[in-house]
Amino acid sequence: GDFILLSQMPEPQPGWAQQYNAQMHPAWARKFEPAAITGAESQRVMETLLRLFELTRDSKYLQPLPPALAYFRRSRLENGQLARFYELRTNRPLYFTKDYQMTYSDADLPTHYGFKATSRLDSIAARYQQLATTADSKGKPVELLRHHPTPSMSSKLAAKASQLIAQQDVRGAWVEPAYYRARSRMPKGMPSLRSATFAKNIVTLAEYLAADSRQKVEE
């Protein structure tokens, strides 16, 4: 959630990019995914912010929504849809031809990828208005994992948690060699951080903490 707050672009284009470089600038990915503001993924980002507010009751997750909604409403296409990509600074919709030449025209689009997205701005705005009226109240966060069984402590789980802690660097990160993917433009073997590894390791550590807490209660 905090990364979403940091990655929102400034006015006059307060949306989000599909991907960023290490300097937090919008960056290219695949050959048909330019450095741009994205209409499709930004809607999912806004929906995520609404969910984060529901889970935390922290109004900071609502603050990016008014400028983002206003911007994307100004940027809707004539048919009411949003472009997948808006050019930085000019805000012109960007498209690609079937032979992957970037263009401002939507006359020759590839069919394997959505270069336009259905607008969900009205439903996002309605949900925002509903939640914003409760932002200053003392409502309780949504209870997560209510029916999730608490794991039991085992020697295997304890050993795995200890191993993961030992593998962290001074920042608390897990660093591993990058595997080669042409579109990532990252050399094979370069030290990297993988979101999938982070998520898996955090789940394991959370299971250990829950199991440890359960064990202490039982004792």
Short description:
With 219 residues, this protein is α+β, with helices and mostly antiparallel strands.
Which helices and strands appear, and what pairs or packs with what?
Blueprint: H1 2-7, E1 37-38, H2 39-56, H3 65-74, E2 82-83, E3 85-86, E4 93-96, E5 102-103, E6 116-117, H4 121-132, H5 155-167, E7 176-177, E8 191-192, H6 195-218
Antiparallel strand pairs: 1-3, 2-6, 3-4, 4-5, 7-8
Structure write-up:
By secondary structure, the chain is of the alpha+beta class. The chain is built from six helices and eight strands. It has a four-stranded antiparallel sheet. Helix 2 (39-56) runs parallel beside helix 4 (121-132). It is globular and about 70 Å long. The relative contact order is 0.11. The model has no long low-confidence stretch (mean pLDDT 92).
The neighbouring-strand order within the major sheet is 1-3-4-5
Intertermini distance? 37 Å
Helix content: 25-40%
Number of strands: 8
| Rounded Rg | 21 Å
The residue ranges in which pLDDT falls below 50 over 5 or more consecutive positions are: none
Rough shape?
Answer: globular
Task: Give a short account of the largest sheet.
Answer: 4 strands, antiparallel
Q: What sequence of helices (H) and strands (E) makes up the elements?
A: HEHHEEEEEHHEEH
Task: Provide mean pLDDT, rounded.
Answer: 92
Number of helices: 6
Notable traits:
alpha+beta, 6 helices, 219 residues, 38% helix, 8 strands
